[in-house]
Amino acid sequence: MKSKPFDLSKDIPDLQSKVFLDTGAAAGVVTQAKSPPINITFLDCDHTSLASVQKVMRKFISESQRLDILFCNAGVMEIDPTLTEDGYEQQFGINQMAHALMIKMLLPTLQSTAQKTADVRIIFHSSVGFRWSGHRPEAFALMSRKAISVHNGARTPRWAMTTSKASLSNGAFYEKVGVTSSPSKDSSDKNLGEKLWDWTDHELEKYGKCLGEKI
To answer: Burial code of 99-119, b = ≥16 C-beta within 10 A, e = fewer?
Structure first.
């Protein structure tokens, strides 16, 4: 099935007052916004360190009471077999654990915003590499049932971030604009998703206990 029509120069609505957080700092949807000037703040975050993630999320939360779109865009694959600062395999640590901590910390802000606007979104950006690598979006299976997963460069994510809420399906995966698809058998496995959710939650709880905090 072909992508649905989506013109970057015409179909992105007025985004004035909306707050986007892009975890990967790639060329994002803000470059197509119709309501300049756009305020862009760079947050220097080391995704291989949960301490860095926590510090940066605290900074964001302290400076913004609103978050409309969380775009989980940072990710790596086929890198050297090294460990993160917290002892996770580096690809899993960056793609999964860093984003899991971000989402847990940002949920109150997202929920508060949703009460005012009734439209907040968490969007995961996948690489085409998931076709031959089981890491992603399988590692995001635990989140994706309450969020949106996308692939296809910048076009599909921009559509997912700005199209009407009625055009999206919760937990869906979009490779082409407006067209849902199934990423893989594993990422559609409910039991696997629940196991990964529970394991990740437990890991973050352990991390919080080490700091004497509740994560």
So the answer is: bbbbbbbbeebbeebeeeeee
